[in-house]
């Protein structure tokens, strides 16, 4: 009887340890980069998150007003709802910056998956970094400069 109790106790202890290890692994899986809030990378990250969340007024706050983009430009653009972003490189030269990213859509395994590179051009203003040029996914409003 005592031997059975020890085996049961060992199994329960093992399960608790395994659960703790798995919890620690999954807790550390959040690989969201933490950029300085006033950096070009943070601006691009916030912009893309606002687009994916369909919070177009927030996305517009990251765009250079000279682009003359508005909410309807976002509503007319296409991007998958399961869009993810990975940062490749950022180059800062004075009041200008370029942030290269990889934007992907990861649907069902082996279906509807695509990955492409985008480059965001940014200009530093008195209020912070602003995205300019032809930003993803609203390329159509860039021609209004």
Question: Your description of this structure?
Answer:
With 145 residues, this protein is an alpha+beta fold. It folds into two domains: 1-30; 36-144, Nuclear Transport Factor 2, Chain: A (Roll). Helices cover 34% and strands 26% of the residues. It contains four helices and four strands; from the N terminus they run ααααββββ. The chain has helices spanning 2-27, 40-52, 56-60, 71-76; strands at 83-93, 96-105, 114-125, 128-132. It has a four-stranded antiparallel sheet, with helices on one face. A hairpin with an 8-residue loop joins strand 2 (96-105) and strand 3 (114-125). The longest helix is centred in the N-terminal third of the chain and has 26 residues, at 2-27.
Give the termini separation.
83 Å
Strand order of the biggest β-sheet? 1-2-3-4
- Number of individual domains: 2
Named CATH topology of the largest domain: Nuclear Transport Factor 2, Chain: A
Question: What's the quick description here?
Answer:
With about 140 residues, this protein is an alpha+beta fold. It is built from 4 helices and 4 strands. A hairpin with a 2-residue loop joins strand 1 (about 85-95) and strand 2.
Topology at a glance:
Layout: H1 2-27, H2 40-52, H3 56-60, H4 71-76, E1 83-93, E2 96-105, E3 114-125, E4 128-132
Antiparallel strand pairs: 1-2, 2-3, 3-4
Task: Give the tags.
145 residues, alpha+beta, Nuclear Transport Factor 2, Chain: A, 4 helices, elongated
């Amino acid at each position: 009887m005592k031997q059975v109790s020890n085996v049961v106790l060992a199994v329960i202890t093992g399960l608790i340890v395994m659960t703790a290890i798995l919890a620690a692994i999954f807790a550390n899986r959040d690989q969201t980069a933490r950029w300085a809030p006033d950096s070009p990378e943070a601006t691009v990250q916030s912009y893309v998150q606002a687009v994916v969340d369909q919070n177009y007024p927030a996305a517009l706050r990251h765009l250079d007003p000279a682009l003359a983009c508005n909410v309807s430009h976002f509503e007319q653009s296409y991007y998958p709802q399961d869009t993810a972003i990975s940062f490749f490189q950022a180059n800062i030269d004075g009041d200008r910056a370029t942030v290269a990213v990889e934007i992907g859509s990861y649907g069902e395994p082996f279906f509807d998956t695509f990955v492409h590179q985008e480059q965001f051009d940014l200009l530093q203003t008195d209020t912070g970094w602003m995205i300019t040029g032809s930003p993803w996914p609203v390329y159509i409003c860039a021609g209004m400069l």
